[in-house]
Design a protein that fits this description.
The chain is mainly alpha-helical. The protein has one domain. Helices cover about 60% and strands about 5% of the residues. It has three helices and two strands; from the N terminus they run αβααβ. The protein has a two-stranded parallel ribbon. α1 packs parallel to α3 (about 35-50).
C-alpha cells in the first residue's frame, strides 16, 4: 500500500496531506515490506530534491520527510 501511495506522489509531484497521513498510519500499524521501505527512500529523496512537494506545513513534518 505504501508503495502505491509513493508512486502516486512521484507521478503527480505532490504528497497530499491525506496520503502522508495514510503512510504514517501504515508505518505504525504493520511491518513493512522491502518494496515499501525502498519506496519510502525514493519519496524522501524526491522531497529533499524538490521533485515532490508536500501539502502539509513544515511544522507537522515527520522526521525524514
Amino acid at each position: 500500500m505504501i508503495d502505491r501511495l509513493v508512486r502516486s506522489a512521484l507521478q503527480t509531484g505532490c504528497l497530499s496531506v491525506e496520503s502522508e497521513g495514510l503512510i504514517r498510519q501504515l508505518l505504525n500499524s504493520q511491518l513493512q515490506s522491502e518494496v515499501d521501505l525502498k519506496a519510502l527512500q525514493l519519496l524522501h529523496s524526491a522531497v529533499q530534491q524538490g521533485r515532490v512537494q508536500r501539502e502539509a506545513p513544515e511544522s507537522v513534518a515527520p522526521p525524514g520527510l
